[in-house]
Structures are given as C-alpha cells and as structure tokens.
C-alpha cells in the first residue's frame, strides 16, 4: 500500500525533517518511500526487531538518509499509525453518519461490519503494533488508537440517541451501547483469522456483527 506524501500530518509541521526543515518535493518522496518500506517490513518483522539499517537497505538508501526524516524506527511507525488512525477513523465514522438507521438499518449495519473487517484485514501488522504498544503504556500509540475508535464511538452514540429521541427504540444509554459495539467490532475484526481457523467464516462473522449492530441501534436490546 503506497503511503501518501503527506502522511502523518495535514500541515507543513507534520512533514518537517528531524532538523526542522520542511522537505521539498524530492525530500517528501524520499520520506514517503521510507514509510512505505517500513509498512512493508512490518508484514514480516516484529516492530521490536525492525532496524533502521533494514529499512534503509530495502529502500536503497543509507541509514543517514533515514535519520534525516525520523529519529528512530518507532518514530516512523508512529507516523504510519497516526495517518492510518485519522484516515480509517474518518472512514468508519462516515459509514455510520451517512447511514439511514431507521429505514435501511440492515444495509447500514452490514456496511459498518464490512468496513471494520476490511480495515483490520488490510492493516493487521500496523494495528498489532498499535495494540501492543498501547498495552505497554506508550501514550503515543494509545492516542492513535483513540483517534481511530473515538469517532466511531461518538457516531454510534449519536445514532442511538437519534433513534431514542424519535421513539424508534426503547430508552437506553447511547454511550454504553456505542462502547460495547465499538469494542465488539474492533475485537472481532482483530481476530478474524483465528476465528476462521476455529470454524467461523468471515461471512458468518460479518452477518453476526451486523445483526448485533442493527439490533443495538435500530431494534430492541
């Protein structure tokens, strides 16, 4: 997956080199290439074992070039994680916000389950780093996880609140429903490969996730 030149920040500050300079076009391309290689290597190498020399060698650059743009390997991974979290969080939020939970709840729930499963399947190595580093107390990666999932929780809570206000469903705690659904969607998506090996197909997981989402938001709990 190619990393956009602007990955990791929407302003010039997010693209600054280690020495504070804003790279020109060629520098931005070099930085993006290093990020692409870092992402690719995470497919086969644990983030603790990944070395600057490995990234530089695969990118056909020197380690000195890497250090022009990133302090260390974790700094590069953090840029990838932050960009992923912002982009994917917005995608998931849009699925919820744009849905019609009153008249087309089945379709909306299926689209949300699909989006979660797709994002987690395509980005499993990076998500694994985010989860591991967050669990070890690294606040930088914990913040990435919040940027990914908080928009989902807020959008789901708003959807439940709207249904309750319209008297379409029984009164319940929007935040509780949103929290449970967000955790369920993320956890199942993270373990879809293992669940497949256990005998639960992706299609069955998708249908079950969607059914729970639809019932929680548009039906009776």
What would you note in describing this structure?
- The protein is mainly α and 221 residues long.
- The protein folds into two domains: 12-71, Homeodomain-like (Arc Repressor Mutant, subunit A); 78-218, Orthogonal Bundle (Tetracycline Repressor, domain 2), CATH 1.10.357.10.
- It is 70% helix and 0% strand.
- α4 (73-97) packs parallel to α7 and α5 crosses α10 (202-218).
- The longest helix is centred in the last third of the chain and has 27 residues, at 139-165.
- The chain is elongated, with a radius of gyration of 20 Å.
Provide keyphrases for this structure.
Tetracycline Repressor, domain 2; 221 residues; single chain; disordered N terminus; elongated; Arc Repressor Mutant, subunit A; mainly alpha
Brief digest:
This protein has 10 helices and no strands.
Spell out the blueprint of helices and strands.
Layout: H1 25-41, H2 52-58, H3 63-69, H4 73-97, H5 105-122, H6 124-135, H7 139-165, H8 174-190, H9 192-198, H10 202-218
Helix pairs in contact: 1-2, 1-4, 2-3, 4-5, 4-7, 5-8, 5-10, 6-7, 7-8, 8-10
Number of strands: 0
Helical fraction: 55-70%
What is the rounded Rg? Answer: 20 Å
CATH homologous superfamily label of the largest domain? Tetracycline Repressor, domain 2
Secondary-structure class: mainly alpha
Strand content: under 5%
N-to-C CA distance: 40 Å
Largest sheet: none
Averaged pLDDT, please?
88
Low-confidence stretches: 1-13
CATH architecture of the largest domain: Orthogonal Bundle
Give the overall form.
elongated
Query: In the residues, how many domains can be counted?
Result: 2
Supply the CATH class of the largest domain.
Answer: Mainly Alpha
Helix and strand succession?
HHHHHHHHHH
Number of helices: 10
The name CATH uses for the topology of the largest domain is Tetracycline Repressor, domain 2
């Amino acid at each position: 997956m190619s990393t956009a030149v602007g990955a990791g920040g929407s302003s010039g500050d997010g693209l600054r080199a280690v020495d504070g300079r804003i790279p020109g076009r060629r520098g931005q391309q070099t930085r993006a290439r290093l990020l692409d290689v870092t992402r690719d290597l995470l497919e086969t190498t644990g983030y603790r074992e990944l070395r600057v020399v490995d990234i530089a060698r695969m990118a056909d650059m020197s380690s000195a070039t890497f250090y022009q743009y990133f302090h260390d390997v974790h700094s590069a991974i953090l840029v990838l994680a932050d960009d992923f979290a912002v982009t994917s969080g917005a995608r998931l939020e849009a699925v919820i916000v744009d849905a019609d939970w009153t008249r087309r709840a089945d379709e909306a729930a299926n689209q949300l389950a699909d989006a979660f499963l797709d994002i987690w399947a395509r980005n499993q190595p990076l998500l694994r780093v985010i989860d591991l580093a967050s669990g070890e107390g690294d606040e930088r990666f914990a913040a990435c996880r919040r940027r990914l999932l908080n928009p989902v929780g807020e959008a789901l809570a708003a959807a439940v609140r709207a249904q309750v206000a319209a008297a379409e469903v029984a009164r319940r705690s929007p935040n509780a429903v949103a929290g449970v659904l967000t955790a369920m969607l993320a956890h199942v998506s993270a373990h879809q490969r293992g669940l497949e090996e256990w005998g639960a197909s992706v299609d069955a997981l998708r249908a079950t996730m969607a059914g729970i989402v639809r019932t929680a938001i548009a039906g009776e709990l």
